[in-house]
C-alpha cells in the first residue's frame, strides 16, 4: 500500500495510471463521465458569470481528479489561446465524450455556450447515474452469491466436527 502511494507521487507514473484507469471497461467510463460532468458544470457556471474562457478553462481544469484529463484540458487551453475554438481543441485530445464536444460546438456556433455546457453537464450526470444504477444492479446478485458462500463455510465449520464425532461413536 505504501509502495503504491509512493509510486503514484511520481507525476509520470500517476499520469500513466490515470490513463490506464480511463481505458478500463466499466470503471473507466464512470471516471470519465464523472470528471467531464464536473468539468462541464464548472465551465458553464464560470462562463455564464462572464469569466473569460481561458480563465474558466483553467479553473475548470482544477476540478478534474484525473491527471490525463487535466493534461488534455491544459493542451486544449493552449490551442484556444492560439485561436482555435474550444470544440476543435477538445476533439483533438480524443479523450472527451462526443456529446460534450458536440454540445460545445453547438454552443460556440449559436453564441450560447453556457446553456449548452449546462445541458452537457446534465446529460453526462444522468449518464453517470444510469451507469451507477447498472453497476449496483450487477453487484446485488454477486453479493448474494458471496454471502451464500460465507454461510456455507460457517455451516460446514459447525457440521464437520459433529459428523466426525458421530462417525467415531459408530
- The SSE order reads HHHHHHHH
Specify Rg, calculated over alpha carbons. 24 Å
Name the shape in a single word. elongated
- Summarize the main sheet: none
Percent in helix: over 70%
Total helix count? 8
The fold-level CATH name is Receptor-associated Protein
Low-confidence stretches: none
CATH superfamily: Type II secretion system (T2SS), domain F
The tally of strands reads 0
Q: What is the rounded distance between the termini? A: 52 Å
**What portion of the residues fall into strands of 2 or more residues?**
under 5%
From the helix content, strand content and strand pairing, which structural class follows? mainly alpha
* Domain unit count: 1
InterPro entries: GspF/PilC (IPR003004), T2SS_GspF_dom (IPR018076), T2SS_GspF_sf (IPR042094)
Domain Type II secretion system protein GspF: 39-161
Protein name: Type II secretion system protein GspF
Family: Belongs to the GSP F family.
What does this structure look like?
By secondary structure, the protein is mostly helical. The chain has a single domain, classed as Type II secretion system (T2SS), domain F (Receptor-associated Protein, Up-down Bundle). Helix content is 85%, strand content 0%. The protein is built from 8 helices and no strands. The N and C termini lie far apart (52 Å). The model has no long low-confidence stretch (mean pLDDT 92).
